Amino acid sequence: MKIRLAEVDDAPIVARLILELAAEVAPGASTATAERVTAVARALLGGSSVWAVLAESGADEAVGVLTLNECASISAGGRFGEITEMYVQPAFRSQGIGANLIRTALELGRSREWTRLEVGAPPVPPWARSSAFYRRNGFEDSGPRLKLALRRLQNDTPSGRGDS
């Protein structure tokens, strides 16, 4: 198994894995197209504060991805990392791939002098195995995470009451 940082040219691979994640987490809920997700991946990976880590099988086929971004908070003591997506294809789970993806994220964080690495845990009980995985890899519970959509991914229009 090979673990490496993705490059901008890997955007279609990252997008494919993110779409697989979305289909597993919320079957039928996503209306995002491969082209749109690839464009977003290409734009973000071309910047300086978002990374993707790929896990490739012996055949150099990507079977896992972890995305993370750099955040900053005064209460966190400065800059820190946040895992925003993580996915390993079902046939490759329980083989240490996820732990290796996290290890690479930790190495990147240390090189950037982040104070910590955070991840939003999925709801329990439906995703109890995922939460247990993060705990086994050193993460601690720190409370729920909430979100408010400002744009919809599929067409970039504002969300909420009365789209403009």
Give an account of the 3D structure:
This protein is of the alpha+beta class. It has a single domain, classed as Gcn5-related N-acetyltransferase (GNAT) (Aminopeptidase). Helix content is 31%, strand content 23%. The chain contains four helices and five strands; from the N terminus they run E-H-H-E-E-E-H-E-H. The chain has a five-stranded mixed beta sheet, sandwiched between helices. Helix 1 crosses helix 2. The longest helix is centred in the first third of the chain and has 15 residues.
Brief descriptors of the model:
single chain; 164 residues; alpha+beta; Aminopeptidase; 4 helices; 23% strand
% residues in beta strands: 15-25%
Please give the domain count: 1
The CATH superfamily name is Gcn5-related N-acetyltransferase (GNAT)
Mean pLDDT, nearest integer?
90
Q: Characterize the biggest β-sheet.
A: 5 strands, mixed
CATH architecture: 3-Layer(aba) Sandwich
Q: Indicate the multimeric state.
A: single chain
Output the CATH topology. Aminopeptidase
- The amount of helix comes to 25-40%
Structure summary:
This protein has helices spanning 11-25, 34-45, 97-111, 128-136; strands at residues 2-5, 50-56, 62-73, 78-88, 117-119. It is built from 4 helices and 5 strands; from the N terminus they run βααβββαβα.
SSE layout and pairing:
Elements lengths: L1 E4 L5 H15 L8 H12 L4 E7 L5 E12 L4 E11 L8 H15 L5 E3 L8 H9 L28
Parallel strand pairs: 4-5
Antiparallel strand pairs: 1-2, 2-3, 3-4
